[in-house]
Amino acid sequence: MRKLLLIFCTPLFLFAQEKKNNHTTEWNSNFLFESNGLDKSFLNTMLYDGYISDEMKITWINAGGKNNIIHSEISNGLSYTYYFKKQSIGFIFADRNLLNARFTDDVLRIGFEGNYNYQDETLCFNNTNIRADRFQQYKLSYGTVINKVNIQGAISYLAGNHHLSYIIEKGSLYTAPFGTSLDIEYDMNVFVTDTSNLSAFVHNGNGLAIDFSTNFIIKESEIHLSITDLGFIIWNTSSINLATDSNFNFQGIEVEDIFSFNDSVLDANNIKDDILRTINTSFKSYIPATFHMSVSGKIEYEYFKTYTLGIVAKWQPYMDNEPLSFAKIEQGFQQSNFSPLYYLQSAVKIQHMNLIPNLSYGGYSPDFNVGLAMSKGKKHKLILGTHHLEDLLNGDKATAVSVYLKIKLNF
Asked: CA 53, CA 47: separation in Å to the nearest integer?
């Protein structure tokens, strides 16, 4: 580890001898909640423990499509970059909190209404997953220009705090008429980090991530290609791992003697233990990687002087269950719960600031979204924006809320 630190730090002593330099410091904050159907009233009720009426339950169940997707992120980061000649070196620290979930309407039905109203019916929970992560990211970056091609790479150390994931590949619940029996089928994997210490910055895992990006000019257009946060965290051996694939028929508990009821309860608990077995072991989880490609150029319009047309994809497999291959790559895109996002962006100069409008389609919800950012300053910049301007006007019916802030200082 000491040798690695020396290798990373040696360029800093050499670069410090340059007379001409440029230092940049940035602060980035990002808050995002996005769903393909569930709205802001659902989020407020879940967070603040509000009253859930029958009408609200029906509305939420019918709001999404066949599968409901929720994604949330709260992150704050500070970065420093030193530029010299045609090269740069930087360091970034970020605190990140991620939640990603996909579940069927039947999960909402069983959660809000129970199974009484679904006698002689089968509720399906296939392809249900919930993933939550909290970690800190320490990133070291290096950039250079070779033959007018801008190339940048970075490596990150990830300090894992907490991870929780429930992954149900197949699952169903059948309730017989009058509730005489239940048929439960499930193929489930559960991963939870050590629950003995739930403090915010507890150290439960270590990980790595890499970045790579390049910018180059073709005719009068600038092409951007990048891969960001391609990485994983290995959680410690105190973590809980549960894996089960079972069929279970429950026909109630027969009590022969009410005064010896404890024996019956004990038998029921033994049945549960036979179905769900847990072990303490290390496991690997992936953080969401971002693939980005865009084309930028200048246009001659009265208000719009530039354009950027791009596509964004996410890669995040549920778990480390097969070696790296084309199948693994395809699996990661499918299990990210993220559809390719296409966007068009421009910039409008007004008297005291720049406006950056954005139109996008896709992502965690198959909708069109209107984004808008305000940028003020030249040497020092303040940028405040949202990816979902249209939802700011929808009140409790908004299915997405996003705000991002960037403060950039050059000296």
From this structure: 16
